[in-house]
Amino acid sequence: MSFAFHEVGKTTKELGLLNEGDCLENLTGPLGNPSEIKNYGNVLCVGGSIMIAPLLLQVKAMKEAGNKVTTVIGARIKDVLFMEEEAKALSDRVYVATDDGSKGYKGLDFLKEVLAKEKFDRCVAMGPVVMMKTVSDITKPFGIPTVVTLTPIMIDGMGMCGVCRVTVGGKMLFGCVDGPEFDGHQVDFDELIHRQRLFLPEERLSSELWELAGGCKCGRSKA
Ligand code: FES
Fold it and tell me: Which of 1-5, 13-17, 27-31, 150-154 has the lowest mean pLDDT?
């Protein structure tokens, strides 16, 4: 079993210090509803950053359901792009994109040309919110049903606290119980981006204090 995560704050940095055989006291998930997998025909799967890992599970499932699958994997820069070989092994075709153009296409604009040439029946996008917004904006004029995986800030993960609320098609829904997958053409991405940034100062402070305290409660550090 593999566990993929990106070290961005205190908790994920702590996770990065764990060794094989170490334990987590609590782990919640998977939350919400299973992905809808069936034979749609021609499917476009777009994954960015750490979410390339779960995207490839969908790629595999979509292939097994009989779909033709084109996969796009992207990252900020080439050094943090991963699982390219796995994507190639699972997909009919793979495109690579980076924000700075250090590998593959620069950004996702190339997709407009791809979609103009070929008809897709479904698009699945997983990654940073801004990336999913971009993909949804690109697929909308082509009328391609687009499913995005949202991971808003969560507390209880049980539909009680309301912290994970997202607006989809004008309705308030909860990421943890109604999601994680939503219609990308209906999601209020601007609201989601705003909510995702609400605690950035506290997250930064927590990470800095943790680093100042030596990087780990248990005395272990990467150095
Ligand atoms: S995390 Fe509390 S309602 Fe979803």
Answer: 1-5
Q: Are residues 53 and 85 in the same domain?
A: yes
Give the total number of structural domains in the chain: 2
Instruction: Clarify whether residues 87 and 75 are in a common domain.
Output: yes
Give the domain extent around 205. Answer: 152-178+189-209
Residues enclosing ligand 1, CB less than 6 A? 154-157, 159-164, 174-176
* Closest ligand 1 atom, residue 176 Cα: 4
**116 in the same domain as 42:** yes
Strand partners, 89: none
Between the CA of 178 and the centroid of ligand 1 the distance, in Å, is 10
Q: Do 90 and 113 form a contact (C-beta atoms < 8 A)?
A: no
Q: Are residues 199 and 118 in the same domain?
A: no
Closest ligand 1 atom to residue 162 Cα is 3
- pLDDT level of residue 195 (50, 70, 90 thresholds): very high
Beta carbons within 8 Å of 88's beta carbon, 6+ residues apart: 94
Say yes or no to pLDDT of 143 above 50. yes
H or E, element range at 155: none
Contacts of 118 (CB under 8 A, 6+ apart): 42
Q: Is the peptide bond before 34 cis (omega within 30 degrees of 0)?
A: no
For residue 25, how many other CB atoms are within 10 A of its CB? 4
Please tell me the residue having the least CA distance from ligand 1 atom 3: 159
